[in-house]
Design goal:
With 380 residues, the protein is α/β, with parallel strands linked by helices. It has helices at 12-24, 37-47, 60-66, 77-85, 103-111, 121-138, 147-156, 181-184, 189-192, 202-210, 212-224, 263-271, 285-288, 302-313, 317-333, 339-352, 361-379; strands at 3-7, 27-33, 51-54, 73-76, 92-95, 115-118, 142-144, 164-171, 232-236, 242-248, 253-257. Helix 14 (302-313) packs antiparallel against helix 15, helix 15 packs antiparallel against helix 16 (339-352) and helix 15 (317-333) crosses helix 17. The longest helix is centred in the C-terminal third of the chain and has 19 residues, at 361-379.
Length: 380
């Protein structure tokens, strides 16, 4: 029985991960959420973990009171997340929290020698070199949960890495595919939160609309698969059936296909290398009939361009654009800025900040704070 702890268990990835755990009889050691006490209590009573974490310290007393009739230990804040990430009982830690808060628990889990199923983008975007070098040093495996990175990971199985030519990262194009820059000036929050293929949380849905999500995945792919930026090609594939592909030296292209359901990559990360029945539906290519492919519009979707430039420049730039984006998206969801301003703010970071190196966790957090302060000053 595999023992799993889930950071961010009440979000979209977290709830689907629990479905997979239930399907295959995994032991859920711990669950955590930011502040969703109702759902967290429901999960705790159903899965009976030894630990429950609530990140929002203001909710700690309520969470503890709700579970007072159980033997479950309630933890809180960043300390709680890190304790869960490093539990001796863990066979694997699934990190699906949203934002920069996910970086430190990942580092703690690696130092504890725990394998990680990674769904937190910011871990590798902001601290990629730091995370991957530490994982290598500690002999820890990082299994990608993103559908695109899972697809690449699957396509690489059984082949020699030195024979890899490039990877093809597919993108749905989001709800505004084909829009001009002028048209983007008039989109609403409701428009941006309506993704054509995936049901996700608000932040990642907005990132998909700006194509920042694909930019972050570009950066993640560079670190996960030890690639040069020029070895990563982005292709818009509206149907989200081909989740990504790899091209080898002989120009053979191998792709991974499936219905757009995150339970498939979640299960592969948790069960690797086993393949068992998944709680989703099978793919019927004839139901789709036609699959389409196109180049992204880098000029219109400034976030995508900025993320690629950031990883090409290196240093703290990926962290800076990521943190600036988080603050800009938060402002957009709070009706403080327009949709079009997200990309403008993110792209301005590359000109505002000088090159600095990332040598450790403190360097990452310093860049994070500076980028957020910069964005807040613009908005105010």
């Amino acid at each position: 029985m595999k023992k799993v702890s889930i950071l961010g268990s009440t979000g979209s990835i977290g709830t689907q991960s629990l479905e997979v755990c239930e399907k295959h009889g995994f032991k859920v050691v711990a669950v955590s959420a930011h502040s969703s006490v109702d759902m967290l209590e429901e999960q705790a009573r159903k899965f009976k973990p030894k630990y429950v974490g609530i990140y929002n310290k203001n909710k700690y007393s309520e969470m503890k009171s709700r579970l007072a009739d159980t033997d479950i230990k309630v933890l809180c804040g960043m300390d709680g997340l890190c304790e869960i990430a490093s539990l001796d009982e863990n066979d694997i830690v699934l990190n699906s929290v949203v934002g920069m808060v996910g970086l430190l628990p990942t580092l703690v889990a690696i130092n504890a020698g725990k394998d990680i199923a990674l769904a937190n983008k910011e871990t590798l975007v902001a601290g990629g070199e730091l995370v991957m070098s530490l994982a290598k040093k500690n002999g820890v495996r990082i299994y990608p949960v993103d559908s695109e990175h899972s697809a690449i990971f699957q396509c690489l199985q059984g082949n020699k890495r030195e024979q890899l030519n490039k990877i093809i990262l597919t993108a749905s194009g989001g709800p505004f595919y084909g829009y001009s820059y002028e048209q983007l000036k008039n989109v609403t929050k409701a428009d941006a939160l309506h993704h054509p293929n995936w049901n996700m949380g608000n932040k990642i849905t907005i990132d998909s609309a700006t194509l920042m999500n694909k930019g972050l995945e570009f950066i993640e792919a560079k670190w996960l698969f030890d690639l040069k930026p020029e070895q990563i090609e982005i292709v818009v594939h509206r149907q989200s059936v081909i989740h990504s592909a790899v091209e080898y030296k002989d120009f053979a292209v191998i792709a991974q296909l499936g219905v757009p359901d995150m339970k498939i990559p979640i299960q592969y990360a948790l069960l690797y290398p086993e393949r068992l029945e998944c709680p989703t539906k099978p793919l019927s290519l004839t139901d789709y009939g036609t699959l389409t492919f196109a180049k992204p519009d880098y000029d219109t979707f400034k976030c995508l361009n900025s993320a690629i430039k950031a990883i090409s420049l290196g240093g703290a730039y990926p962290c800076l654009v990521n943190s600036a984006n988080e603050e800009a998206v938060k402002a957009f969801l709070n009706d403080e800025i327009q949709f079009i301003q997200i990309g403008e703010i993110v792209s301005s970071v590359l000109d505002k900040f000088k090159f600095t190196t990332i040598s450790g966790y403190d360097d990452v957090m310093k860049s994070d704070r500076e980028a957020r302060e910069y964005v807040r000053n613009i908005i105010s």
